[in-house]
Amino acid sequence: MSLYDEYRHQHVVGLEGGIDPDYDQLKKHLSDTFSNIQIYQDLDACVDFLCNLSEGKTRVYLILLGLRTAYMAELISDWPQIAHIYLYDQKSEQPLLSNNKYLRFSTNSSRNLFISLVRDIELEQGIPPAMTYFTSNTLTTERSLRDLCSDHQSATFVWHQLLIDVIRQLPRKLSDKEEMIDFLRSYFQDDIVQQQHIDEFIAKYESKDAIRWYTKPEFLFRVLNRAFRTQNIDNIFTLRYFLQDLYHQLENEYQTQREWLESVIVHRGQLMYQDDFDALLKNSEQGNLIAFNSFLSTTFDLDVASVFAGSNTNTNPNEIPCSLFFNNASKSS
Fold this sequence. Notes:
Blueprint: H1 3-7, E1 10-16, H2 24-33, E2 37-40, H3 43-52, E3 59-65, H4 72-76, E4 82-88, E5 103-107, H5 110-125, E6 145-147, H6 151-169, H7 174-187, H8 192-204, H9 210-215, H10 219-230, H11 233-238, H12 240-257, E7 263-271, H13 274-285, E8 290-292, H14 302-309, E9 322-330
């Protein structure tokens, strides 16, 4: 099953109260990120589209662009197709507030809007949070944290690290890139937007830009995170061409920064299901060793981390704990 198959019932719909050039950049970013997206200036056309969507699996993430469209939240909030409603107005000097229980997120920050939107789609689709956790008695399908208490888990973690170490030292071959591209083409075979991003990657990618390519909310970020969380050795090995560049650039950045940076505090916001949250607390209190199994994204900005943690949402239907991690990184750590 391709990622397109998993997301094809998810629709992102934007409605603005007339043509407004101030939203052109946001609309382009939305179109470049999501495959199933429609943006309307006409209310009737938007309503017609929503009415024609089948019920059941179909879920709509409705973005109301500007305060002129805010009244729509009350009109269509009880439609079964609507998963969440977002209000975005970049002209507002303060974050927007609303008592509408159906309004998932209101903001004047396009960055925070995207963070909330991507997170909600993944949760609605049932994709586990990035820190899926398991104990020695419970094994989940996807996981990025390791409780290293048991010998079996310790061994598995070591083998995973050895695999990465081998990949980093393999000789570079042109066929590695071709193999990865073929894999990505197949993986996103029905996703036109991601196919276009793959075309751009083929034409423009340079090894020195590996970090930039990974941090885009596009095909590499999605497929790498999925491969690491599922510990799919075949897929990880197939992606070795890019992984070699990414690890090499991260090492260079580390060596450069450690020359002048004594220590730094970075933040990570994380939604965790209650059982996973309780297990993490329990293992932390017991002093057990826990290791991240995939790349860890952090930020200097506590507000951004709070958005990732879900603390700025008006609703939390799944009652998922909002977690904030403060990481003190130093030369000695």
